[in-house]
Specification:
This protein is an alpha/beta fold. The N and C termini lie far apart (58 Å). The chain is flat. The strands form two sheets. A five-stranded mixed β-sheet has the order 1-2-5-4-3. A two-stranded parallel ribbon has the order 6-7. It has four helices and seven strands. A hairpin with a 4-residue loop joins strand 4 and strand 5.
Length: 184
């Protein structure tokens, strides 16, 4: 890790949100910050709106189950966010830790692309995002029991599904906003 100098991103976030930053590192120009989950929305908004930072692109959100890892933190799950400033060509990763019962603030009000990424994490890990506009299963069937990317999910478990699951309610809303109809 490059610890010789702090990047502008790490310096500015530490200056504004010092108590909310658990750790920070920079390696080959990519910055990483582990932050308190309660500060996620405020820090993400700051990263997007500060003109020197201008992280205008949410690249990805991913979940991790630390069940079988040595415990550096008390919470079982981690959620990692990757941002890119297309203008300044720099990246930053934010990471928060959460217990299965915790709620993490949604980033949908800041980046619409967070919608399906957060739904995927909800579906696969069972983590809830507070304020999400439509937090329901995305990849697994509505009758699916459990969360298959949790390390304690039985790998050979089989489930019988009996009803069809449609996402047309979402499509009808989107089409109506654009002045289109589905014809049904």
């Amino acid at each position: 890790m490059d610890t010789t100098s702090e990047s502008i991103t790490i310096s500015k976030v530490k200056a504004k949100f010092g108590n909310d930053v658990i750790s920070a590192s920079s390696w080959r120009g990519d910055d990483a910050l582990v932050i308190r989950k309660e500060a996620l929305l405020a820090i993400a908004k700051f990263l997007r709106e500060d003109p020197e930072l201008d992280y205008n692109f949410l690249v990805d959100i991913g979940g991790v189950d630390y069940l079988t890892y040595p415990k550096p933190q008390p919470e079982r799950f981690g959620v990692g966010y990757q941002f890119l400033s297309m203008q300044h060509k720099h990246r930053v990763r934010l990471k928060v830790f959460a217990a299965a019962s915790d709620e993490i603030d949604t980033l949908v009000p800041l980046w619409k692309s967070a919608n399906w990424m957060e739904r995927e994490i909800f579906d696969q890990y069972g983590l809830k995002f507070k304020g999400h506009p439509n937090l329901r299963r995305l990849l697994n069937h509505v009758e699916f029991v459990g969360h298959p990317l949790r390390k304690d999910y039985p790998i050979k478990k089989r489930q019988v599904l009996s009803t069809s699951d449609s996402m047309m309610d979402e499509m009808k809303q989107r089409l109506a906003v654009k002045g289109l109809t589905t014809g049904r």
